[in-house]
Design brief:
Shape: globular
Mean pLDDT: 90
Order of helices and strands: HHEEEEEEEEEEEEEH
Number of strands: 13
Radius of gyration: 21 Å
CATH class: Mainly Beta
Distance between the termini: 72 Å
CATH superfamily: Lipoprotein localisation LolA/LolB/LppX
Largest sheet: 13 strands, antiparallel
Helix content: 10-25%
Number of domains: 1
Length: 258
Amino acid sequence: MTYLNSILLVLFFLLLSLPAYGQDRITDESEARAIFEEVEERRNTVSSETAIMNMVITDPRGRTRSRTMKMWSVNEENTSKSLIVFSSPGNVSGTGFLTSRQDGSTLQRLYLPSVGRVQNITSSERGDRFMGSDFTFEDLGDQQADDYEFKWMETYSDHYLVRADKPDSEQYSSVTFKIDREKYTLLEIHYFNEEGEKIKRLEAENFEQLADSYWSPAAMTMYDLRDDRKTEITWQDRETNGSIPDWRFTERGLRRGI
C-alpha cells in the first residue's frame, strides 16, 4: 500500500467516526419551533377521526399481550378531545380513557368498570404506564408546541432534527423529534431524562394520507430502553372529518363505552 493510500484510508476511518450532522446546528428557538408548528398545523387539518386500534405489549422475555380499542377524536379551535374505549380482552373491556385539552390546559380521566368510577389523572400520575403498556398517560396527551422550550434544529437531506426541553414533565427532561422534510410527519421521538440518558424511543411507520397535506402513521412502536420492552399500536378502519356527537367526550360517553 502506498503512502498516499495509507493517508486516504486513515482519513476515511476518521470521517466514519465523526457525528453524522447535516447542516450546522441552528440554535434559534423560533426556527426550531416553526418546524414543529408546521407538523401541528397539518395535523389540525383533520377535524375528527374514528378508528379501531390494536395494541401489542411485548415484555423482556418476548411474551406478548394484545388489546383492542375504539378511538374517537376531534380538533376544534383551541380545543382537542380524544376518547379511547377498550373492547378486548374481557378483563379490560369497557375501560375508557378521555383526554381534553382547552386553551393549553389538559384534563385526563380514566373509567374502570371494575370499580365503577371515573378518576382524574393527576400531574404526578402522568408518568405512569397506560394500561400496562410502554406509553404513559403523558405520551397519550395532545402534545402541542406550547408544551416545549425549543433549543436547536439540524437539517438533513430528508428530515429535520428538533431538540426541545419539556419543563412541565416529571419523566422527560428533553426530547428530540425526527421530522420528515416533505410531509412534516413525526418519524421518531427520542426521550431523555435529567441525566441526558435516552430512556425511550418512539418510531412511526406505514403513513396514510388523511388530508391534502396531512399524513398520519398507521403504526407506532414505543421502546422502553431501560426495561427492554416495547408496545406497538396500529390503526385500522379509519374515518375522518365525520360527525361525532358531543356527548362522546363527556363522563356519559366515558362510562357508556362502545
